[in-house]
Amino acid sequence: MSLHDRLRPWHALMVAVFVLGSGLSLFRAGDYAVAALFEAVVSGLFAVVVFQFTVGNLWGYAVEYRNAGGRWTDPVFVAPFAVALALAALVAVWTGEPVSGAWAGFWVFAVAAALLAVGVSFVAGYRNPEA
């Protein structure tokens, strides 16, 4: 199997995130010393981890909902996104820091999706399987 067959667009996206994270770190440092290069590599790797964690969780949520028979246009599916985006915008405007808004939005999404998953499992448990 050639390398081209094993590389997917997801890998290219992770490389792009790594290059962007490393490049921003080097740009902020304004220096190309060994310590700055090491810090840039660590920053790039951290950016990849954060990217995989957030995008991976969002993608997993979407795929699992779809595999359970839902559609991505269902209000139940869209609700955690809507709540998270609304709160993220509110926190970003209130604090004046977009990063705080994004952080709050992510955790609100995680809690809302978890509560929704528990609620759906609870309701599905009481459904008549013969209906």
TrEMBL record:
Protein name: Uncharacterized protein
Segments traversing the membrane: 12-30, 36-63, 75-94, 106-126
Keywords of the record: Membrane, Transmembrane, Transmembrane helix
Domain of life: Archaea
Keyword Membrane appears in the UniProt entry: yes
